[in-house]
Automatic annotation (TrEMBL):
Record note on quaternary structure: Interacts with PSMC3. Part of a transient complex (modulator) containing PSMD9, PSMC6 and PSMC3 formed during the assembly of the 26S proteasome.
Similarity remark: Belongs to the proteasome subunit p27 family.
Entry protein name: 26S proteasome non-ATPase regulatory subunit 9
InterPro entries, per the entry: Nas2_N, PDZ, PDZ_6, PDZ_sf, PSMD9
Organism encoding this protein: Picathartes gymnocephalus (White-necked rockfowl)
GO cellular-component term (any): nucleus
Length: 201
């Protein structure tokens, strides 16, 4: 969003500067109108000659002409400046929009790459009995299991694989990796006998 010729993007302070200049011009126009008002209320279009065609003696003609000329010039400047303010604001908004879209795209790309880097799950936790070894270790319902001791997606065939690992690891901590809410979570699980069925619950 570089400026033609200027070669740099519009900033908020550029817009503020334009608005300050606009306020100055408006103040100058107001001062010129007040000057005309002071000259017997002569506005922009009242005649400056009397009925006989002579210059009016009751007003300062030079001051009135100068004020009228200044008002016309200042109004033209004001119009051009308003156009500049509008263009600058458009550019500023367009840049904000562009930046927001870029940020959103980056966030999305990051989320996508995180998802791609997550390993594949081979089983999902359906139930966790309160007070069981699984519950004590912090396993939760809907956790997706990606590693259970030595079992992973590459060597998993059926749930019997997990049962075998559990039986061989009674009383010894197993490293379990799950995906929870799109993040990888490690859980230390020790299969052991408890009040309920099985070694996990």
């Amino acid at each position: 969003m570089a400026e033609p010729g200027g070669g740099r993007p519009v900033t908020v302070s550029d817009v503020q500067q334009l608005v300050r200049r606009k306020d100055e011009i408006e103040a100058q126009i107001k001062a010129c109108y007040e000057l005309l008002e002071g000259q017997k209320g002569v506005g922009m279009h009242e005649p400056l000659v009397d009925a006989e065609g002579f210059p009016r003696a009751d007003i300062d003609l030079y001051q009135v002409r100068t004020a009228r000329h200044n008002i016309i010039c200042l109004q033209n400047d004001h119009k051009a400046l308003m156009k500049q303010v509008e263009e600058a604001l458009h550019k500023l908004h367009a840049r904000e929009k562009e930046k927001r879209a870029k940020d959103e795209a980056e966030a999305l790309a990051e989320a996508m790459s995180q998802n791609q880097s997550l390993p594949q799950a081979f089983a999902k936790v359906n139930t966790v009995t309160p007070g069981s070894p699984a519950s004590v270790s912090g396993l939760q319902v809907d956790d997706e299991i990606v590693e259970f001791g030595s079992v992973n997606v590459n060597n998993f065939q059926n749930l019997q694989n997990i049962a075998t690992v559990v039986q061989h690891s009674e009383g010894r901590p197993l490293s379990v990796t799950v995906i929870r809410g799109g993040r990888r979570v490690h859980v230390g699980l020790t299969p052991k006998r408890w009040a309920g069925k099985g070694l996990l619950g």
